[in-house]
């Protein structure tokens, strides 16, 4: 029997009515003859609310306890979805990540899946039950503690289960009709992308388009699992994320597929670094030892008069305080003068496999941004992406300008945001 894995995000299970609607969708698949495994996120903004609560009782909650708390969100939805399905006359059983065999590393808050052993899911399916699995969580192989996979990680749970169960299809249900040329919450004229390659989707996700979790796309590419991203609020066709986009006859592939933005990063400038061999290595070694993921890096040319230079880099704002502490520890050894911290920045990225063969994309992008009077603070590129850092208040205008410049605007508004608060 064909097996389908479906994932429902927070806004799709935000309240009792939403859960009942999702249960009907799940039962419809079962009735159509599929074995069904469902991965659920926490209801609405539950994860953020639990995080707020934790911060009220402790400014720096221990990772182990924070994971224990956050995983409760997904447990609530999995049980409610299973009950709602039961109420429709079908058997559903809920499983925590640990019960579903999601084995991870032990890094709390950002654990990686190292194995999936879904024996209990297979047994339940064989007995005819619909399986509901709590997303975003697993159990550490070493410490046996409960872990979480990072914000948005339920997408990754779904793909990992689809791979382990050899599913025929993995559907990601969310609050928009698929992947659009930009976040429909800030560009209402964004266009739905019918098909996108893993490669471009990876760059979009890595650039902050939170429609899919980055590691979910990496996983899907590695195991060649086609993803179907669509809305749980409509029957519209959605977006297929696949290895090779089918050529539509007579249609050239666009140069730019989409514009992504990210407001979750901060910028640190290490001021007055002595211009000596090994200084940059010492700085980034200290950050690596503190498990900080550095994104963009810019090193200025040193001023001849001082033989000192400034090094700026971006990182997740969540790691800002840890990074500053790690750098202060090596200040005397490295001999830099001071540290500057700015979390009022945003990153805007242009993504498109077509830019490989078209020169001039960078110039057009920068010109469009300049015409809005927006200053570019940092730049980085890959083969199919150009990213800039701007002031956070300029992000929306920069995204809209790039979207317009590369003719991505739809003739008629087709982007609908069905739910969610965008938090
Ligand atoms: P879920 O809770 O279903 O996982 P998320 O909030 O994580 O949903 O992701 C869906 C949201 O992603 C959309 O509501 C939208 O605001 C945002 N988003 C960002 N970039 C894009 C894009 N390029 N296309 C579609 N949605 C996007
Ligand atoms: N509930 C978690 C979050 O809000 C995981 C997810 O929704 O994918 O990040
Ligand atoms: Mg998500």
From TrEMBL:
It catalyses: L-aspartate + ATP = 4-phospho-L-aspartate + ADP. Signal peptide: none annotated. One of its GO terms (molecular function) is ATP binding. Residues 268-353 form the ACT domain. ATP binds at residues 7-10, 174-175, 185. Transmembrane segments: none annotated. Its EC number is 2.7.2.4. Substrate binds at residues 47, 74. Keywords: Amino-acid biosynthesis, ATP-binding, Diaminopimelate biosynthesis, Kinase, Lysine biosynthesis, Nucleotide-binding, Transferase. One of its GO terms (biological process) is homoserine biosynthetic process. Pathway: Amino-acid biosynthesis; L-threonine biosynthesis; L-threonine from L-aspartate: step 1/5; Amino-acid biosynthesis; L-methionine biosynthesis via de novo pathway; L-homoserine from L-aspartate: step 1/3; Amino-acid biosynthesis; L-lysine biosynthesis via DAP pathway; (S)-tetrahydrodipicolinate from L-aspartate: step 1/4. InterPro entries: AceGlu_kinase-like_sf, ACT-like_dom_sf, ACT_Aspartokinase, ACT_dom, AKii-LysC-BS, Asp/Glu/Uridylate_kinase, Asp_kin_monofn, Asp_kinase. It comes from the Bacteria. PROSITE patterns: ACT, ASPARTOKINASE. GO terms for cellular component: cytosol. Belongs to the aspartokinase family. Catalyzes the phosphorylation of the beta-carboxyl group of aspartic acid with ATP to yield 4-phospho-L-aspartate, which is involved in the branched biosynthetic pathway leading to the biosynthesis of amino acids lysine, threonine, isoleucine and methionine. NCBIfam families: asp_kin_monofn (TIGR00656), asp_kinases (TIGR00657), PRK06635.1-1 (NF005153), PRK06635.1-2 (NF005154), PRK06635.1-4 (NF005155). This is Aspartokinase. The lineage of its organism: Bacteria, Bacillati, Actinomycetota, Actinomycetes, Streptosporangiales.
């Amino acid at each position: 029997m064909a097996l389908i894995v479906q994932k429902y995000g927070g806004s799709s299970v935000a309240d009792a009515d939403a859960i009942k609607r999702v249960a009907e969708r799940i039962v419809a698949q079962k009735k159509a003859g599929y074995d069904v495994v469902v991965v659920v996120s926490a209801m609405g903004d539950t994860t953020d609310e639990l995080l707020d609560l934790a911060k009220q009782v402790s400014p720096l909650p221990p990772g182990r306890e924070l994971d224990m708390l956050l995983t409760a969100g997904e447990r609530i939805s999995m049980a409610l979805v299973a009950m709602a399905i039961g109420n429709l006359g079908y058997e559903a059983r809920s499983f925590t990540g640990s019960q579903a065999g999601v084995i991870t590393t032990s890094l709390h808050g950002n654990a990686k899946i190292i194995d999936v052993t879904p024996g209990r899911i297979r047994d339940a399916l064989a007995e005819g039950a619909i399986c509901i699995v709590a997303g975003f969580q697993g159990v550490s192989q070493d410490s046996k503690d409960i872990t979480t996979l990072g914000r948005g990680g339920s997408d990754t749970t779904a793909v990992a289960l689809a791979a382990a169960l050899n599913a025929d299809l993995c559907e990601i249900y969310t609050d928009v009709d698929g992947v659009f040329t930009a976040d429909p919450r800030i560009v209402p004229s964004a266009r739905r992308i019918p098909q996108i390659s893993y490669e471009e989707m990876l760059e979009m996700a890595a650039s902050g388009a939170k429609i899919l979790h980055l590691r979910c796309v990496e996983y899907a590419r590695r195991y060649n699992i086609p993803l179907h991203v669509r809305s749980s609020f409509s029957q519209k066709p959605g977006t297929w994320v696949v290895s090779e986009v089918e050529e539509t006859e007579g249609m050239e592939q666009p140069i730019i597929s989409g514009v992504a933005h990210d407001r979750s990063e901060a910028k640190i400038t290490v001021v007055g670094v002595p211009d000596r061999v090994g200084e940059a290595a010492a700085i980034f070694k200290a950050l690596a030892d503190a498990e900080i993921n550095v994104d963009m890096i810019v090193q200025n040319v040193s001023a001849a008069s001082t033989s000192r230079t400034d090094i700026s880099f971006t990182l997740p704002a969540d790691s800002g305080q840890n990074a500053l502490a790690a750098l202060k520890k090596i200040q005397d050894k490295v001999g830099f003068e001071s540290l500057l911290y700015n979390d009022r920045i945003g990153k805007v990225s242009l993504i498109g496999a077509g830019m490989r063969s078209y020169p001039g994309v960078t110039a057009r992008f920068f010109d469009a941004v300049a015409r809005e009077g927006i200053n570019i603070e940092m730049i980085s590129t890959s083969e199919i992406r150009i990213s800039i850092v701007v002031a956070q208040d300029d992000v929306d205008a920069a995204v809209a300008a790039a979207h317009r410049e590369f003719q991505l605007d739809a003739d008629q508004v087709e982007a609908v945001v069905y739910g969610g608060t965008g938090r």
